[in-house]
Structures are given as structure tokens and as C-alpha cells.
Amino acid sequence: MGGVLEGVRVLDFGRYIAGPYCATLLAEFGAEVIRVEKREGSEDRFVAPVGEGGEGALFLQVNRNKKCVTLDPMKPEGQEVMRRLVATADVVVANLPPQTLRAMKLDYESLKAIKPEIILTTATAFGGPGPWSDRVGFDGVGQVMSGSVYMTGTGDPPYRAAVNWVDFGTALHCAFGTLAALIERGKSGRGQIVEGALLATALSFTNATLIEQAVINVNRVPTGNLGQTAAPADIYRTRDGWVLCQVTGHPLFKRWARLMGEEEVWLNDPRFADDISRGNNGAIISERMARWCAERTTQEAVDALGQAMIPTGPVLSPQQALDQPHIRAAGFMQDIDYPGLPKPAPVTRAAVRLSETPGKIASRPPTLGEHTDLVLAELGYDEAAIAALRQRGVI
């Protein structure tokens, strides 16, 4: 494929998001990534199915640019295949609980015995040390335990986010850590463990709220879409939809007051002197902004706010997001064909661009076991040996 990570081989034993998306980011910038999957297909292949074979939208999103082999690593012959694979690899990605890693012989000590300079990138739900280190969990666990869900909505009931930001944030942290470990290995020759945790990611994203609580004991409660530390910061109804307006900092507030045509009203009142004061009196400011938006269409509102250099955006449905002119023009997504899909899938590229060595989506996600024979042949298995492994249920 080329790219800054060309020559790096990654074995992806990850499931769902944190592990697979970490490996995908590495693949997009040139690493060779081999996804190792159950013979019948791993469960994350079939989330939100969109294809004839049951492949899901999530699988298509986080597994482009990879090869796929099927393997039962719990069988002795499967262990031998895995040993040969590890011997060729630079990085093993496995977001699995510690006890599962040990059972599969994917723990760091087992891997290091095969290849001393190996890097193991792993992610767990809760991290450690701690009494919950061996427990399992998904994205929502991090959301609810970080304070984020408590502060979302109006409190009865609390709401978790519909998108898996904890999982994807953990994948980003793990990819960053893997790159740092590769740089260190290039200097010292040493491998190491790169460890992410869903709860650690969630806490890092909500940290400012936790700091505020710890230092001044503010005891905030949820206020829906209304911001609490600046204003106007809310989602407002227009004549035909909804828009978000988000003002932070006095220069932005001055521009907003000018747009309202009411600079004398808003800029000379001590209740609105700084961000936190405006946040404390946000309902007053939001009421004015709500009246302004209600007189306009969504397009008129976002155009006027945008021209005034005030952060804004329309609330879009998924279809509207696909059709939005800027999203289409910016090329954030690439249409990918996949066997059995009724139409191409719009897969997002890595959300960072390098001017000289950009990443790229070079190949579609793999079908189940698509590259098993190819990879095993590279490991020294001939056609008869591969057929025997398949007959015995190893691959």
C-alpha cells in the first residue's frame, strides 16, 4: 500500500470498535493488518447488517484495508499457526479481557517468548489495577461512569450518547500509543504493552467537568442542550428545523450582540460580563436567540451566523448528513463496494490529513477468511497442509 507505516505488520484480534478501529487507522497509513477471526465469523462482523451475507455497517466502517484469516487458536494446530504469525508481526492488537488473552496465549509474556520486540496493544473496559480490572464492558459503561450521562438530557431519565464515542476515543488513544511504542522500538529495540481502557478514555473526555466539581464543588445538574459555562449555547428551533449556536469567549459574544443589533443591551450588563456569568444567565440569552431563530429558516439562520463568524450548524438527520454539500465536497467519505451490498457504502476516511504522506482507503473490508490461504502460504504451509487444517476445523 505504501504510506508512513509501510513495512509494519499488525495482527488484529480486536472485536467491535476499540481494537479494530485502532488497527484500521494503522492500516490507512500503510501498515499491513491481518484480521484474525473465528471460523464462523466473529460477532462484530454482523452488527447492523446491510449485506446479503449479514455483514454489518460497523464492520464495513472499521475493517477496510485489512486482510482476513480464520483461525481457531484454542486448538494445538491453531496455536502453531498463531505462533508463526506472531513471529512475523510487529504489533498485536487485542481488546480482550486479561483472562481471555492468557487463555488464547495472547498475553504479553506469551507473545514476547515468540518475538521479544513485539508490541501488544490492548484495551479493557476498566483498566487497572483495581477491583474491576477483570470485568467486561462496552462503550456505555464508560459513558455512565464518567459523569457524561448524568449531565446529558434533563436528568429524568439520563441519556447516553447514541454514538460510541468512548470506543472510538479509546481506539484513537491506542493508535497513538502504538505509534509511540513503534518510535521507541526504533530507538531501543524494545517492545512493550500499550494499554487503553474505556473508562480512562471517558474520564479524560469529561475531565474538565470533574476538575470543576473537585475544586469548587459546583454540583451541576443537567440542563438539556442549554450550555452552562457560556451563552448563547443551545439548540434552537427555526421555521423548518433546528440549529446549534455555540458562543464562547467575549469576542464571539460581541459579534453575536452585533448580529442581534443590540450591542448596548448585552455588552453593558454585568450579568453578561464574562463566559461564566453568561452561562449562569444563559436562559435569558437563549430566549433572545430563540426568537431570532424562530423568524428564520434553518438555511437563513446558519448563513447569517456563519457570515458573522459565529459557530453554528444545522441539526441533520443521517440522510441529510449524507447529502450535505460541504460534507460531500470535503471528501470525508469514500464509496466502497462490498460483495452483496445493494449499493456502495460511504466509509469515512481517517479524520486527519497529512499533507505529504496522506493515508488512503486502498481496499474494501475483507470477506470472511478471504486471505487465509494467501497468509498461510506465506508462513510456509503448502496446499495440502492448508487443506488438512481446513478439514480439521483449525481454519
UniProtKB/TrEMBL annotation:
Keyword tags: Transferase
Protein's UniProt name: Crotonobetainyl-CoA:carnitine CoA-transferase CaiB
Gene3D superfamilies found in the cross-reference section: Crotonobetainyl-coa:carnitine coa-transferase, domain 1, formyl-coa transferase, domain 3
Annotated GO MF terms: transferase activity
Highest taxon in the source lineage: Bacteria
Cell division recorded as keyword: no
InterPro entries listed in its UniProt record: CoA-transferase_III, CoA-Trfase_fam_III, CoA-Trfase_III_dom3_sf, CoA-Trfase_III_dom_1_sf
The organism's taxonomic lineage, starting at the top: Bacteria, Pseudomonadati, Pseudomonadota, Alphaproteobacteria, Hyphomicrobiales
